[in-house]
Design a protein that fits this description.
This protein has helices spanning 23-33, 93-111, 143-157, and strands at 8-14, 41-46, 54-60, 63-68, 75-80, 120-129, 163-166, 175-180. It is α+β, with helices and mostly antiparallel strands. Strands 2-3-4-5-1-6-8-7 form an eight-stranded antiparallel beta sheet. A hairpin with a 6-residue loop joins β4 and β5 (75-80). α2 (93-111) crosses α3. The two termini are 29 Å apart. Residues 190-195 have low confidence and may be disordered.
């Protein structure tokens, strides 16, 4: 694939209803603690006035951590936007980017474990390739793209027991997939996560 999305979003779903306001002090504490060494955490933004969208955002230079209520399902989203690692020259660069976004999302989920907020559902995620114009053709009809995403999810979580289906969305929106994995796979990735 010659053209790569500059932004990839991974959303993990909460087990229980959330109160977005609870994340404001939590995200501020992550900034103070420098919770993610590989991210420059900048500020917390409140978008609760936007219906069915991002609610609370922890803005970092490399990515945004989002309490996302889009489509009526609350989740913690990780939106990687820059600072992509080069990876091994033999690696598919799209797979490297998907792996980086998955790793960031799982790190964020792990950071919630001791927080007074709902936990993360263990067997489900959504992934979007945000920059649609950087992908040639119609990705929702591209079996190679779906296979690439499926392969990386399978490798990252060390399981072939997963389903990956395109999200049924308006063609004007970003291409996304919904994945189901064995219970709690999200919390036990096969690869060690970057520090």
């Amino acid at each position: 694939m010659d053209l790569l999305p500059a932004r990839i979003k991974v959303k993990l779903f909460f087990t229980d209803p959330v109160e977005p306001n609870d994340f404001v002090p939590l995200f501020h504490s992550w900034i103070q603690e420098k919770r993610f060494e590989d991210h420059l955490l900048v500020d917390v933004a409140d978008y609760r006035h936007v219906p069915q969208g991002p609610s609370i955002i922890l803005v970092a230079h490399e990515a945004d951590f989002i309490v996302d209520i889009e489509d009526g399902r609350a989740g913690l989203a990780y939106l990687r936007k820059r600072g992509w690692p080069a990876g091994d020259p033999s690696d598919d660069p799209l797979r490297v980017r998907i792996r980086t976004a998955l790793s960031g999302a799982v790190q964020a989920a792990a950071a919630l474990e001791s927080a007074p907020v709902p936990g993360i559902e263990g067997g489900e995620l959504a992934l979007w390739l945000i920059d649609r114009l950087s992908l040639r053709g119609r990705p929702e009809r591209d079996p190679v793209l779906l296979q690439t995403i499926r392969q990386e999810l399978s490798a990252f979580f060390a399981t072939d027991d997963l389903t990956v289906e395109p999200l049924d969305r308006d063609s004007r929106r970003s291409f996304g997939v919904h994945a189901r994995l064995p219970s709690n796979s999200l919390l036990v990735p096969s690869k060690s996560l970057p520090a």
